[in-house]
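User: hey, got a sec? need POTRA domain-containing protein folded
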Amino acid sequence: MLVKKRSKAYRLLTKIAFLSSLVLLIGGLIYLFFFSDIFKIKSIEVEGRELAPDVDLGEVGENILFWKLNQDNLPSLVESVEVDKKYWDGSVLVTFNEREKYLIWCYEIDRSCYWVDRDGLLFSGAPDLRGPLVFKIVRDQKASPVQIGEQVIPNKMYVNLVAAFDFLDRYNISVNEFVIEDIARREAVARVAGDKDIYFSLTENPDFGGSVVNSLKKSGEWNLIRYLDLRVPDRAYYSL
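Assistant: Yep! Here you go:
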C-alpha cells in the first residue's frame, strides 16, 4: 500500500511540475513577444518616399511581428511595395517602386497630358513635349480624358498600340508624332521623319508589315514612299 501511495504522489507531483513549467513557458513567450523590447521596431527606413509622402508607416516601438503596411490607398505613381523585416535587429525597410513611364498621352480637347504605363494605366500628369521625341507620345484628338488610375483605352486596343510602338522601334523608324484622330475608328497614324505616315489598326498586330519595311529599306524606296498602310490584316499598302 505504501508503494502505491508513493506512486500516486509522484505522478501528482510530476503533473504539477509539468503544468507549472507549461504556464511559465507560455508566460515567458507572451512576455517575450508582447512586452519585451526584443521584437519592437527600432528603425523604419524608406526608399522612394517621395512617391507616397502621405502613406502612414506606423511608428518605431511597434511590434515587428504584427506590423503591416496598409496598401489600400497607395498613390497611382506607386506600382508595387516591398517590405523587408529584419526581426532580430528590429529594422524595417519599405521600398516604393515607381510605376513605369511608358508613354505620354495628350488629350487635344483640353490640352492635358498624362503618363501611361506599359499596361495602359493612366497614372499622373505629364508635360506636353514637342519636337524630336524622347518619350513616346500619343495625341488623342477627340476623346475626353479618363480618370487617374483608369485604363486609357480598352486593353484589346492598347496591346496593339504597344505592338505598333515596338514595331517602330524594331525597324528604327523615327516618329515625330503619333495621332489617334478618333478612337471610335480604332486607328492611329504615326507621323514619321521624312514626311511620311504609317497607318495602324488598333485591332491588329502590325508585325506582318515588317517584311515590307525591310524590302523598302533594302531597295532604297523607303525614303521615297508617302505612306505605309497596315490597317488591313496581312496586307501592306504603300504609295511612292
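Quick note: The two ends are 118 Å apart (CA to CA). Let me know if you need anything else on POTRA domain-containing protein.
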